[in-house]
């Protein structure tokens, strides 16, 4: 990873540096083909791409004391042990390699099929093991002592995009049987991307993925290419920032904002 570390971390330029994290066990799947098309489109446009193909890598998704070397306690405190290991340079080599990629990237793409209304276990394990305390979260502003999160944090300066294949083609929405995908993906988009400081692009959703024909695939691939190439200047979800004045000291939205409304949508401006 020495070549990656020569770049300035998180600096956005006209040429994107993209970390593409893929979570699918079959490279010949719809998801795998979309990844190939998307990566090729980025490279053809002059952007740089580094991949973490989690299944191909044999990524271990399980957090254990071995992740933290001699920074781990007899009684494992995952958050504290991970931060101490980070400071000592004692994190497991596979975690450090992913940190190198994130340090190099200004754009992060997470691509996965929606399984049981969530990310596959291997991707959840990537998030659990890589986004450690003191690195992606639990980072404090030295001037105020306030924890940087929700619009600021350890991954600030980057943009994030989720590319999601969904088996269902209908029944999705505020009154749909399968639920509203905006709410289903809220833990990832708001609770992970935005929490760690990344700007959040509108996710790319491929619906009815189990029944997509050739014409459907062609349309989905074209949409993905267009969305990827628009990332540097494209719109982002207008989430409210922690320190923008919209929340009180308890983290509750002020009564004057989104009056009478409840639910996850109140955390979007407008």
Automatic annotation (TrEMBL):
GO molecular function terms noted in the UniProt entry: NAD(P)H dehydrogenase (quinone) activity
Keyword list, A-Z: Oxidoreductase
A cellular-component GO term for this protein: cytosol
Domain of life: Bacteria
Transmembrane feature ranges: none
Gene3D superfamilies named in the record: 3.40.50.360
One Pfam family from the record: Flavodoxin_2
Domain Flavodoxin-like fold: 16-225
InterPro entries: Flavodoxin_fold, Flavoprotein-like_sf, NAD(P)H_dehydrogenase_qn
PANTHER family, sorted: NAD P H OXIDOREDUCTASE-RELATED, NAD(P)H DEHYDROGENASE [QUINONE] 1 ISOFORM 1
Family under the similarity heading: Belongs to the NAD(P)H dehydrogenase (quinone) family.
The protein's name: NAD(P)H dehydrogenase (Quinone)
Organism whose genome encodes this protein: Krasilnikoviella flava
């Amino acid at each position: 990873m020495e070549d990656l570390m020569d770049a300035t971390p998180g600096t956005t330029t006209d040429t994107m540096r993209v970390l593409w994290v893929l979570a699918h066990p079959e490279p010949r799947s719809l998801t795998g083909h979309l990844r190939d098309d998307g990566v090729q489109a980025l490279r053809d446009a002059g952007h740089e791409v580094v991949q973490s193909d989690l299944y191909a890598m044999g990524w271990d998704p399980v957090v254990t004391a071995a992740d933290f070397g001699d920074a781990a306690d007899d009684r494992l405190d995952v958050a504290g042990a991970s931060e101490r290991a980070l400071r000592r340079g004692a994190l497991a080599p596979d975690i450090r390699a992913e940190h190198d990629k994130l340090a190099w990237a200004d754009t992060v793409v997470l691509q996965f099929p929606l399984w049981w209304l969530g990310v596959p276990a291997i991707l959840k394990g990537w998030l659990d093991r890589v986004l450690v305390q003191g690195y992606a979260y639990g980072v404090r502003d030295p001037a105020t002592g306030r924890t940087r999160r929700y619009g600021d944090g350890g991954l600030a300066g980057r943009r994030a995009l989720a590319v999601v294949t969904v088996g269902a083609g209908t029944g999705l929405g505020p009154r749909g049987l399968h639920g509203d995908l905006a709410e289903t993906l809220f833990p990832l988009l708001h609770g992970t991307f935005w929490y760690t400081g990344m700007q959040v692009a509108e996710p790319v959703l491929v619906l009815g993925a189990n029944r997509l024909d050739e014409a459907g695939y062609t349309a989905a691939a074209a949409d993905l290419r267009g969305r990827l190439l628009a990332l540097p200047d494209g719109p982002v979800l207008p989430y409210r920032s922690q320190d923008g004045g919209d929340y009180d000291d308890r983290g509750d939205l002020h009564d004057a904002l989104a009056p009478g409304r409840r639910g996850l949508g109140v955390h979007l401006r407008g």
